[in-house]
Amino acid sequence: MEKIKKYAPMTIRILIAVLFLISAFAKLYPSPYLAITTFEKKQLLDLGFDSCFAPYFSRLLIALELALGIAILQPHYLKKIVIPVTVLLLSVFTIHLSLIDIPNCGCFGELIPMSPNQAIVKNVISILLLIYLFRNVSDHRSGKNKLSNLILIYLASTLFLFMLTPMKPCIKFNPIKSQAEKPLSPFSEFIEIEGYSPFNIDEGEKILCFFAPGCDHCMEAAMELNQLSIKNSDFPQVHIIFMDEEKEKIGDFFVATGIKASYQIMDIGKFWELLAFDGNNNRQTPAIVYLKNGNIEEFYYSDENEFDSIGLEILLSE
Length: 318
Hints:
By secondary structure, the chain is of the alpha/beta class. Helix content is 49%, strand content 10%.
């Protein structure tokens, strides 16, 4: 019993440190910028965070997880600051998890998929261990506590995150107007085409697609569009915006689907922002927009309004 009491505090500190360090680095897996942008899209924007503030908050939050993982192993202000802040953060996470119902809560990113209920159990156990640690550990035993040590740990963690995943300019997406005050689609100024004939998304009928090159559902949607184009000789011109993820698969995407379309590659952060131009952060890929003279006639996106090739065919025939 004495041995357990002697070694338990350090064992708990190591366990909590490993937990927080894995949580921080998992949110950067497999590609730091891609992972952190996905975390912002699926976690922060759905909570109502401003799209320009979310990138700052995500980096500061992950830096805090990283800093706590390191700080729990050092002696300065362990009981007065480090343990209470760690318990507070876990409590906030637990409250958030109790309000959501998704397959993967994102606690460990895509590295270790975990349901909200599993994460809640993990957090509750961690909080109980920290309470035990709080009762059986003291702050710095010799000399003075140095707050500067904690500040330096957090500043170093924050600097690491911002250097690893540099910020990109935030763009607010708002519909623009021509000189004649004609409303144009919110996508107009972001369409870029190279090697194709001139393309104006705001003239006539157009199909705009938001796809991920490695997305099976996107490929299925593209195949359905290709079948519609074969049946309809005057099928609208199709333009695809691919997110900058697995872009080496774009060639295979066109070969497998047979679709004939112009395309561009967009930074993943900008991609999600454009897809949620009107504040609807629930849109997922595949997303397909049917436009007529710049007006959005139909907006298909995964889950809430899934792509319906028959419905689109009916719209085109009207």
